[in-house]
Amino acid sequence: MAKVVIIGAGLMGSAMSWPLSGNGHEVCLVGTHLDDEVIDRCKSQRLHPRLNRELPGTVIPFFFHDVDQALDGADLIISGVSSPGVDWIAEVLSGRIRAGQQILSITKGIRIDDRGKVRLFPDIIAESFPLNVRNTVIPVAVGGPCIAGELAAGRQTCVMFGSRDIEAARSSARLLSTSYYHPRITEDLLSVELGVAMKNAYTVAVGIAYGMHAPDAAGANTHNTAAALFAQGCHEIGGLLRLTGGDERMASALPGAGDLYVTSAAGRTMTLGKMLGGGKTYAQAEAALRGVTLESVQIIREMGKALSIWESEGSIRSRSFPLLRMLVDIVVNGGKVEIPFEDFYKDV
Amino acid sequence: MAKVVIIGAGLMGSAMSWPLSGNGHEVCLVGTHLDDEVIDRCKSQRLHPRLNRELPGTVIPFFFHDVDQALDGADLIISGVSSPGVDWIAEVLSGRIRAGQQILSITKGIRIDDRGKVRLFPDIIAESFPLNVRNTVIPVAVGGPCIAGELAAGRQTCVMFGSRDIEAARSSARLLSTSYYHPRITEDLLSVELGVAMKNAYTVAVGIAYGMHAPDAAGANTHNTAAALFAQGCHEIGGLLRLTGGDERMASALPGAGDLYVTSAAGRTMTLGKMLGGGKTYAQAEAALRGVTLESVQIIREMGKALSIWESEGSIRSRSFPLLRMLVDIVVNGGKVEIPFEDFYKDV
């Protein structure tokens, strides 16, 4: 049995405890400095307040100040922070990482550098490590449909573990694989990470469709509109993968269509989209959602940077990725919802 | 303004009246011999009883016995029957078709011939035409998210018109294009038709996920499972397109992911899936749904034939298309729901 340390006691990080504990591993669930209340409840009542479930048997909760004790002898470290915490976790790990350490990142997002290059969170974390260990640590990332509460409930799902070293992906997947959590593996880390990030952006578009109209007297909803935007989202994810050297087929797989489907089923990103579809400006929606982490917005902003760099260097046309452009216009420029159907389904 | 004749007064055929009439075209809505009651209400009250909406102004309802009068001078004929009616509509048109006639098929489904070749409905219809007109009639088919009631309500959608003659697709699309109905065009008829047919089959799988569990006390649903099956469905549609000479990118576009999304949002195919996921055998579910046209079942049966021919001739492996195989096993062999996650996301 292995020792696995999860850093970040949010929904998704914490939910990973269930398959790990079910497999008999020792699980150290370490809260960040923002998770003290959660860890307190975990310690005093064995209850995870955000998942509203009793912690499985082999899980040991830790406050952040005990992180060194938790990390001692870890076989696998799971970075369970949300995207604003990526630089923080990089710093936390940089002074503590051992050569050859296995790391699994579950954070969803990307960054775009000043030359328009896509930077992946697992790489951003690894780049903070001391030179002598950096090349011995090959991070793994996971993507695919996984609502945390459903994972903790033991509902079936299938996800994709990606790493440039397939053995690293296989090894992490083996620790987590259960009768209900089915990891598949791939060497295509870029496609996993970009697919997972982009589904957050395009979920806003699906939400917009549902915000545009309430069902009418004859019961007509806006599923057609949602589906058209869903499909254009998948289509553009495929185009982004092709453009950045990924595998465009991932657009119709777990980190693309699968993750977009599940994120469109519920949650705060849909709430944002519905507000925008209902006529709120982004500023108004942001004010109404204050305090909620909107990874989708950060991703849309980064992609706005990317589109503008790619266009100025001639890699894409001025009307490529029309749905993403609409999202950027709404979030960055305070633009209105005007769906550019006439530009859909051209080569992007 | 054109004269457009729709044959079949079911939900989808009838709903096409709205964009056509909105564009000012004369629309003859001809019921089949099964639609007499519908046409009666359309004539006496200007109300379409199944859509529960008043017919638009330029629509003229016809009983089937007046089909010749309706067809006189038609610029476009829309075949609006469901899949069991394909041979019937072929026979109806074979004696009445003019050289150069434009035809648009909205029927969802496919057939597999004895050598495992995919046969498309538009081709089956065209093959019934007399030799001297057959090559002058190049059918168009439509796929993509389009719930009939939403189309009639003027809710936005984007669909794909496919024809081997792009001008034929363009010409039909022009008649129907409105501010809310946005047809895109493609020469890839096969991918449109196969994508649209297969989404019916894979919707059963999505339904199965939702039938497996009710939400639990902590609110956990089965969106993860549904999304994993959704993505595997898209992945297998891509594999089927590659195998049959289509464009696998259509798997993540309107006739694939888009149409699968909308069909999974509601309807009888989901109802069948939920029954199967809840533990009913196919025979039990069929009995409970008696009288409902299940195009999905017909498609699954045809694909069962295809898989077995393709496997015996060595075109596919014995575990290729694992989700489709599960559906075939359930429908054809009365098998149980056992999701083959371990075979997912391999090359199909």
Kindly provide the radius of gyration of chain A, computed on alpha-carbon positions and rounded to a whole number of angstroms.
20 Å
Strand content of chain A: 5-15%
Helix run count of chain A: 16
Number of strands of chain A: 12
Overall tally of structural domains of chain A? 2
CATH topology of the largest domain in chain A: Rossmann fold
Largest interface here, residues on each chain? A-B, 61 and 61 residues
CATH structural architecture of the largest domain in chain A = 3-Layer(aba) Sandwich
Q: CATH H level of the largest domain in chain A: which superfamily?
A: NAD(P)-binding Rossmann-like Domain
Reading side by side through the largest sheet of chain A, how are the strands ordered?
Answer: 5-2-1-6-7-10-11-12
Structural class of chain A: alpha/beta
Low-confidence stretches of chain A: none
In terms of quaternary structure, the protein is: homodimer
